[in-house]
Every structure is written in C-alpha cells, then in structure tokens.
Write a structure and sequence with these properties.
alpha/beta; Rossmann fold; 2 domains; eight-stranded mixed sheet
Length: 333
C-alpha cells in the first residue's frame, strides 16, 4: 500500500555492496522533482526512463513490470515536474513548457553522468516522453549512448485525428450509443485540438472505457493498480496526480499537439530504436515506421510488439527487456 508520508522504494535482494535502491528528490530547473535510482550494481550502465503524459507519472512501474532491467542497468525513473510526486506550489504556470521539461531532462542527465562517472547514458521515452527525448537528442547527443522510443510520437495533429476516428469507429462497432453521441458532438479535432481540454479528456475516457489503451484491456487496470499501490507513491501524490491532470493538459496540450518530429528532427547522431504496439490507437505504429525509415541516424531499429497497445514496455515486459539487452550491446559497441 502507499505510504502516507514520504514514500519508499523497496530494497533489492542482491548480495553486493554496490547495490543501489533509493527514492530521491533533487532540484531541477529550480523546483523539487523526484526519482528512483535502482540497480543491482552501481557500476552498470545508466538507463533513464522518461514517462508519458503530460502529467501522467508512473513511478514504480518499471520496478513492478521489468525488474530484470535492474540487474543489467542502473535504472533511473524520473517523475517530471507538475505531476504526482513532483507537483508542488513552487511549480507555477510559467514553468510548464516543453522547453522547460527538456531543460530538466538535460540537467538530470548531466547530474547522473557526473554522479556515476559515466560518459553516456541509455535513454528510454514513452509517448509524451518520446518528444522530450528526441528534442534532447538534437540538443545534446553526446550525452546519450542509444535511445529507445516506446510508442513514439511523430506528428501529433495526425495522431490525434486518427485516435478520434478509431475511438468513434470502435464505439459504433460496439453499439455504445452514449459514446457515439458524445464523440460525434465533439467533432474531429482541428490541428489535434478540440474546442476545450474537456473534449480531449472525454475522448480519452472513452478510449479507456472501450478498452483501447492496451491490447488486453485488463492490463490497463493492472498498470493503474501498480501505480496506485506503489510504495514510492503517497496518498498526497495520488491526489496530486488526479487533481492536477487537467492543469497539466491546459498548460501543455496545445504545445504538445504542435509537435511534428518529421520537420523538427530529420536526423540524430545517436543509435535509435522505436518500439511500437501493433494495437496502439493513441500514437501510430505506421507513422513511427515511416518516420524512422526517413530519419538519418548511425543505427536504426523498428520493433513491433504484436500483443501491445499504447504501453508496449509493460504489456510485453519480457520482450521489452530482451530489446533493451540488444540496445545495450548496440550502445556499447
């Protein structure tokens, strides 16, 4: 169950003096943010995980679903500003821009490399987090040994249009008159946006209700439980997560929907791997494949997870672990 005070991360069962398992807070961009740092051997390569959103931290999920990663990497799971454990009154509206998040990611990466005396780290982004990571690759490629984009965003306007159409089609197939009526009343998003943030929240609620987030709808519930019951998360953190989601959306969604990586990031100087969920209806596996084909990079891999939707790394955790071992070898070559 969640802690009522600070939270904690469980100890690792490993017989080595170099084991590390800590829940930490640090100042990034002038505000307090939280992270877990976990690994069986502090001498292992660094892996920094950048969660989705905006405003959807999933602290504890890597530990819950892919604990094997901690045997091969020092896994850092960052709770970004403004959400869950990293929400506080010191995070004001003007602090909530994508540029500020990318700057936080850069500062955190530099801190970790200095702390663990490394030249580079492995970077994993999920959904919203993939846009932050790609912008870091343009800005500071020398920090990153290899990058893995899970459910990679590409063209947010097109992705939101496809998501809306897929949701409406599913509602009609299932004969859900209430969903059809609400979605038709919204109309198609224009440049990725409905008339208000409420429209996006309504559309996302129907995607969850219609079982469209994960390939197996039961997994969405399991992932939600893993977040809610994580010992790293306190009751206050949960209240902040749900209570501040709309605030995150109001401040960041319009900017997020302007992301078009085909134009922004045509080339990177870092090996890249995209992991796509074949059943993802929030980002597009087809757009990710087309973008990767055009992207200029020293090495590129595209991996389609056949039994996954929008949370591929936790829907097929064993396969994700195996891909990460391949990426590790690629980054160390």
């Amino acid at each position: 169950m969640f802690s009522l005070v600070r939270g904690r991360t469980p100890a690792l069962r490993a017989d080595t003096p170099r084991t590390i398992a800590s829940l930490e807070r640090m100042r990034l961009g002038g505000v307090t943010q939280w992270l877990t740092v976990r690994g069986h051997d502090a001498a292992n390569p660094l892996l920094l995980y950048v969660h989705g959103g905006p405003g959807n931290p999933d602290l504890g999920t890597i530990r819950s679903f892919v604990p094997e990663l901690e045997e091969r990497f020092v896994v850092v799971h960052w709770n970004q500003r403004g959400g869950g454990k990293s929400y506080s009154r010191e995070v004001t509206d003007e602090h909530m821009t994508m540029a500020r998040f990318v700057a936080d990611l850069e500062e955190l990466s530099e801190h970790l490399l200095e702390r663990f005396d490394r030249r580079k780290l492995f970077l994993v982004g999920h959904s919203w987090g993939t846009a932050l990571c790609m912008r870091l690759l343009i800005r500071r490629p020398e920090l990153v040994a290899a990058y893995v984009g899970v459910n990679q965003v590409v063209d947010r306007r097109e992705e939101e249009l496809r998501a809306y159409r897929a949701c409406l089609e599913r509602a009609r197939e299932l004969g859900n008159a209430k969903a059809v009526a609400q979605l038709e009343a919204l109309g198609e998003p224009q440049d990725g946006l409905f008339a208000t943030v409420d429209g996006t929240l309504v559309q996302r609620r129907w995607m969850r209700a219609l079982g469209m987030v994960t390939c197996d709808p039961r997994l969405a519930t399991e992932i939600g439980k893993a977040i809610a019951l994580s010992p790293e998360v306190t009751l206050r953190d949960l209240l902040a997560l749900f209570g501040r989601l709309r605030w995150n959306m109001e401040l960041l969604w319009r900017e997020f929907c302007q992301v078009n990586l085909v134009r922004e990031v045509p080339a990177v100087d870092v090996p890249v791997c995209f992991i796509a969920g074949a059943h993802d209806r929030i980002t597009s596996p087809e757009l990710a494949r087309t973008y990767l084909d055009a992207l200029r990079a020293p090495h590129k891999e595209y991996v389609l997870f056949d039994r996954s939707g929008h949370v591929a790394c936790f829907e097929e955790p064993r396969r994700f672990f195996e891909v990460m071992l391949d990426v590790k070898a690629m980054g160390e070559a």
